Amino acid sequence: MNDFDLGVRTQALKQLLSWVEQAKIEVAPEAEVANMHCHTFFSFNGYGYSPTALAWLAKKNGYKLIGVVDFDVLDAVDEFLAACDLAGVRGSAGMETRVFIPEFATREINSPGEPGISYYMGIGFTSSRVPGTVVDILAGMKRRAGTRNRGLIERVNAYLAPVQIDYERDVLPLTPSGNATERHITAAYAAVAARMIDDPAAFWSCKLRLPPAQIAAVFDDPVKLEKLIRARLMKRGGVGYVPPDGGSFPTVEKVNELISACGALPCATWLDGTLPGEQDEEELLRLLIDKGVAALNIVPDRNWNIADPEVKKRKLQNLYDVVELAQRLDLPLNIGTEMNAFGLKRIDTFDAPELAPVRQAFIDGAYFIYGHTAAQRALGIGCRSEWARAHFASHSEENAFYTALGRRTPPGEAGLAWLRRIGAGAPQAFLSA
Question: Given 117, 255, 317, 388, which is the most exposed site by the fewest CB atoms within 10 A?
Answer without folding.
Answer: 317
